[in-house]
Design brief:
By secondary structure, the chain is α+β, with helices and mostly antiparallel strands. It has helices at 10-14, 23-30, 42-50, 52-59, 83-89, 103-114, 166-171, 176-181, 192-199, 202-224, 237-244, and strands spanning 70-72, 132-138, 147-152, 157-163, 184-191, 227-232, 251-262. The protein has a single domain (13-66, 73-262), classed as NADH Oxidase. The two termini are 39 Å apart.
């Protein structure tokens, strides 16, 4: 059996000779874990263990906007079907036209993605610190106004933050046509300090890993619901941050999912 060699693009990425100031390499090195670094996190761990206030805060790590008007979502709306079928049917697919999505279906995707179930979320999280926040930009959701919402994973509720602007959504994406066809846009942000408090720079890695877990849950549920779902990394960070009110420092967007009507 013969195999075809894979292309080596290292020289294209790093250049010849390799530069000494590659920022990605610097970050990866700074976030490594080794025996001389791990004990340095001990003061944070001891503080967390001794402080009931910090423990309570970590256990309920999520923004809440209970004072805002919102929409209570129906629990138990996660689409049915076997796990194997979901894996086979999962495709990253953009909606082919602007078609609406039902509020029940949207709630099911959020429930699958990050809802609190028996005190824990539906995804693994480093130290159970849950640094992510989920926002929905509803553009064509049945029984729902065109609005920007924050998702409360404890109450399973959408909290209205303001009006949605489809043109602003399109201008925040590298491919503007995705915004023109979206029924809803799911934005994941990370509150980096929640996990860096315990894990230092390695906590940044954990936040990104967790975002991947959430989006995988969402797209698998979307496959069961026959909803088009496209995970997107091609967006303009500051514009997406502005859509959901993130400051880009303590809280910043890390992932976007375009949701549409039936596939």
């Amino acid at each position: 059996m013969t195999t075809s060699p894979t292309a080596d693009f290292a020289s294209v990425v790093y250049g010849e000779p390799v530069a000494d100031d590659d920022p990605a390499e610097h970050f990866h090195e700074a976030s490594r874990l080794h025996p001389r670094i791990a004990p340095g996190r001990l003061p944070s761990l001891l503080l967390l263990g001794r402080s009931a206030e910090l423990q309570q805060s970590a256990a309920r790590s999520s923004r809440t906007h209970a004072h805002r008007s919102g929409i209570a979502l129906q629990r138990g709306a996660v689409p049915g079907g076997s796990f194997r079928d979901a894996l086979v049917r999962r495709r990253s697919s953009a909606p082919d036209e602007a078609r609406s999505i039902s509020l029940r279906t949207l709630g099911g995707l959020l429930e699958a993605g990050y809802a609190v179930q028996s005190g824990r979320r539906t995804v693994p999280s480093g130290g159970a610190l849950y640094p992510l926040e989920l926002y929905v930009v509803a553009l064509a959701v049945e029984d729902c106004s065109e609005s920007v919402f924050h998702y409360d994973p404890f109450a399973h509720r959408l909290e209205q933050l303001g009006d949605a602007d489809r043109a602003a959504v399109s201008s925040a994406l590298v491919d503007p046509s995705l915004g023109e066809r979206a029924a809803a846009v799911l934005v994941l942000t990370a509150m980096f300090w929640r996990t860096r408090f315990k894990y230092g720079l390695r906590g940044y890695r954990f936040a990104l890993l967790e975002a991947g877990h959430v989006v995988q849950n969402v797209v698998l549920a979307a496959a069961c619901a026959d909803v088009a779902a496209l995970p997107v990394g091609g967006y303009y960070d500051r514009r997406v941050d502005a859509l959901v009110g993130a400051d880009g420092l303590d809280e910043a967007s890390v992932y976007v999912v375009i949701l549409g009507g039936g596939r």
